[in-house]
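no rush on this but wanted to send it before i forget. theres a chain ive been looking at and ive put its sequence and its fold in token form underneath. i want to understand how the tokens follow from the sequence so walk me through it. thanks a lot i owe you, the record is right below:
>
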Amino acid sequence: VQLQASGGGLVQAGGSLALSCRVTGINNRIATVDWYRQAPGKDREMVATISSDGATTYADSVKGRFGISRDDVRRTVQLQMSSLKPEDTATYYCRLQNARGTFWGQGTQVTVSS
């Protein structure tokens, strides 16, 4: 099982970025996929979740600014981020959960300058 996260970068406050998580080696159609983030010196926190039936959940800090979506044909889960703030700066990770267990991808760095 591999989760490949991409799309991070440097953006000015107020800007937008789209992260993508590509899943291989497992049937992602029946999996819940999350995006987490971890800023230096802080615990890893859940940002957004999308279940196998498309139900979504967001952290309060990103509601109205971030959107999670999935394309099970392309085996990707995207996190569209807008109105970015410096406090959104972190390494972002995707995570997949299914009956076989929990799998993490490598992180992708998002840096928001003020």
In short: The first strand starts at residue 2 and ends at 6.
